[in-house]
Amino acid sequence: MNARTIVVIAPLRHPIREPHAGGLEAMVWDRVRMLRARGHRVLLCAVAGSQFQEDGPAEFRLPAVVWPDERDATDSTFPPGHLERAIPALEAALDFIRRNAARIDLVDNHSLHPQPLTRARRLGVPVVTTLHTPPLPRLVPAARAAEHHGRLLAVSAYTAAEWREHGVESQVMPNAVDAGRWPLGSGGRDLVWFGRIVPEKGLHLAVRAARLTGRPLRIAGRVGDVPYFQEHIRPFLGDGIDYLGPLGQPALADLVGGSACALVTPLWQEPFGLVVAEALATGTPVAAFDTGGIGEVAGTASAVRLVRMGDAEALAEAAERLAVAHGRDQQCRSRARAAALARFSLEHRAAELETFFDLSGADAWV
Questions:
Q1: Residue 88 class from Cβ within 10 Å (0-12 exposed, 13-18 middle, 19+ buried)?
Q2: pTM (two decimals)
């Protein structure tokens, strides 16, 4: 694929920078970095404070989320007045794309708001939108109206099927893991849980499962719902349950790779489950709730055991068996890593993505 000018539109909530706010932000960060490394000019439209915005227009710096009282902060709501600032700012960014359409080859949209979809036909630039979520009511009509034949990607077959039930077709392109940033680890005795700390990620059940195994649990991630953390997590810290806060990527990879087993505990229909692929890339086995796209990421890997969603006792049993069988066995860990990277390596996904972006029918998108 010849070098292109690509605008990547991020969600409106968190800056695209390390430590990553969540899997979606990590995926967008990797996307920008990967496309630039392959010679493309990439402009990032994202919340102010993001990396990669040094040479972009002012219109691509969207308002930051500021909570008057951080104790009220959640990932499912916005502070009063934020959307009244953020949505016009996003519209201004789309106006910039329309005015400069002759100098932009593609828009790679990861926004969870409908504006880029509803305006796609009027931008004068091909738009690819990735579906990272279940069919949100505010997005479904926009996706239908856009009539994006060949321009919608879904992060899993499960997510694609959910959207298909609402009349929206998409092509499956799973998320990916940078092998160099998630190296093989030596394993250890402790369990690990990492990700956004919000109710739907089920950390409290990972804590319960860890207690049942008798193994320490190390927790890393950003608190995305302060009331949930204060009520359901903080009282149970200590005595082998340690919260390390949000970690930069090298420290996080060391933590995960130095663990006996990763616990993955979504209490919703997880669209993908990037933490599963990341843990496996370090060789660390995964005990997880079987929900949404988690099973697809697990595939047939012997280093993954899936249990019924919400069953902490079954999760504890699965984690203990994996920790004993795989925790420090370097051959097992190497096989788990090789199998994960064969399916989810960023390098392989980059080539697939460029092929998709360079569709011969792209002119018909506009």
A1: exposed
A2: 0.93
